[in-house]
Amino acid sequence: MKTYLITGGAGFIGSNFIQYMFNKYKEEIFIINVDKLTYAGNLDNLKKIENLNNYRFFREDICNEKNLDKIFKIYDIDYVVNFAAESHVDRSIEDPSIFVKTNILGTQTLLEITKKYWKTKNGFKEEKKYIQISTDEVYGSLGESGYFTEKTPIDSHSPYSSSKASADLITKAYYDTYKMPINITRCSNNYGPYQFPEKFIPLIISNCINNKQIPVYGNGKNVRDWLYVEDHCVAIDLVINKGIAGQVYNIGGNNEKRNIEIVKYIICALKNKGLNVDEDLIRHVEDRQGHDRRYAIDSTKIKAELGFNTLIDFNKGMLKTIEWYLNNKEWLNKIVNGNYMNYYEKFYSKR
Ligand code: NAD
Ligand code: DAU
């Protein structure tokens, strides 16, 4: 039985990944979830699996070396998958410091503890793997054409993406220096169930449900490459099992859309489901500072080398996502009626 240490497992992608893994491997795996439960961490995301015998949760900060050490002492961990991060670009523009702490120092702390328990006299124990979950944002921004490949130079812009780029480099250093078995995955924008409604797609859905204006930054022509979260989980599982140590793998959805297209798409889909919404909810607001123009991933490497393919196309993924939010209004309301309102006021009232 393989033991996984998942960090950030009560956030959007981490909680989807844990559920995906239990659905796929059932009792064959043991998962330990370490999460600090910041504003973005939500144990409601894991209600379906929280009582499983082969699951443990620890409320812990990845910067806390001592307490991570205790966990490694108890469990013989085979795989570490580091999702834990401050993940929202807008918040990083407001206050970069926590991004540096969690995303850079936290990653280095986790790498160091992992090395301590996996290192042998001659190298590393066999069949161990550390996966750093990174982002396409480390590559910077594209013009109208071209794609990010794994060879594209790092050219991050926001405090968020720069902290993730730093984490990538320190992770790479553990391979280059110690030959620690690591992989780095860089994926495009995820969407799907359990995404915190500060992010664009759930924010649009939430605002439509609550009949609030939809803030579109600038002219709305910025492009993102959307990946359904379950496809991302499939890719991570492949990298854990088949990825070559030291390698970086890009993961994209091959679904480029302008932001304004996404807004109109969701309004139309919700209208078709009987919601009384209209495009007059759209409000163009002040642009994000340093707003990256376009992200687009070239996934050739993970497809050719590990056999990855997306299974859920954009229409299917969006339908699943919209239906999930409509069927889980309690989940959404709990967030929207909490501290979220203060955040929303602070970030949007002056725009
Ligand atoms: P999220 O914000 O929804 O979740 C992050 C989780 O990390 C939360 O549960 C939070 O409580 C936890 N966390 C934060 N600081 C911590 C700390 N110091 N110690 C322990 N736990 C901590 O983020 P997400 O969207 O699920 O993203 C997960 C990872 O994937 C991140 O590393 C992010 O950079 C990366 N990523 C996300 C996307 C995307 O579109 N969402 C795309 C590419 C890469
Ligand atoms: O590309 C991967 C990255 O995608 C991840 O690394 C990040 O963790 C994740 O947050 C995401 O970053 P983005 O900045 O691309 O995502 P966000 O949902 O914040 O915004 C998507 C686009 O929508 C972006 O061009 C900004 C725009 N936007 C966003 C918000 C929140 C708006 O126009 N209005 C909004 O209110």
Description:
The protein is an alpha/beta fold and 351 residues long. It has a single domain (2-194, 225-255, 290-312), classed as Rossmann fold (3-Layer(aba) Sandwich), CATH 3.40.50.720. Helix content is 42%, strand content 17%. It is built from twelve helices and twelve strands. The chain has helices spanning 12-25, 65-74, 89-94, 97-118, 159-178, 200-209, 229-242, 259-272, 300-306, 314-327, 329-336, 340-348; strands spanning 2-7, 29-35, 55-59, 79-82, 129-135, 182-187, 189-191, 214-217, 223-228, 248-251, 256-258, 282-285. Strands 3-2-1-4-5-6-10 form a seven-stranded parallel sheet, with helices on both faces. β5, α5 and β6 form a beta-alpha-beta unit. α1 crosses α7, α2 (65-74) runs parallel beside α4 and α4 runs parallel beside α5 (159-178). The chain starts with a strand and ends with a helix. The model has no long low-confidence stretch (mean pLDDT 97).
Short overview:
The protein is of the alpha/beta class. Helix content is 42%, strand content 17%. The strands form three sheets. Strands 3-2-1-4-5-6-10 form a seven-stranded parallel beta sheet, with helices on both faces. Strands 7-9-11 form a three-stranded mixed beta sheet. Strands 8-12 form a two-stranded parallel sheet.
